[in-house]
Input
Amino acid sequence: MIRRAQGLAIFLALFGLAVLLLGRANITPHDEKWLEQTYPSHVGDYQMVGSADNPQQSYKMDETTYLELKPMGIVSRVLTNGRHSFDVVVISSHERDSFHNPLACFAAQEWKVSNPHVTHLQTKLRGDVEVSVVTAEKGGHPSIAVYTYEGPTAMHGINTEMMGLKGLHGDLFWTELKTARPQFATFFRFVCSDSGVTEEEVLEFAALYLDSAPVRPVKI
Output
């Protein structure tokens, strides 16, 4: 009986893996252009500043980031209301390895990070959202950064379980296993370096943006 149960468990695991791999071969081609059309270029009275190369983005993320993260796409936009400007980065990927703690990226890019902490946003569309907040300084200019993640079934902040089976990576893994289809997650980062802007104002903008963005915009 035990051997039969073990054999069945192994068979189901291999079957699930095979279905998942076959599903990955037929991933719906959501790409950077799709991200540009899906996520907002303006929220409230904030409008995006487009670039000459691409009116749908304010600037192009460096090639090293693309090579390291292997994302579906990255959208980098600066939204301004004429008084304050917020740098918004949206990154989506099918790969769990694309998502990690941004503190490592800040350090690699020679930012001095201080006061990292976790707080919560109250949003209309996503309810209570856990976000991470840091002050990142480079060249004598401090910036307040807020970031969070959206998995296939829930939002996830940075905590000890973010990389575990109860966090973002687990959300991707178990949802793929249950649906037998590949899933994707999205990283949101909000940065403001304007003098006099408080953490509360950056959090308010982050909540405004999330309420303007579609909740898990597509089921794969």
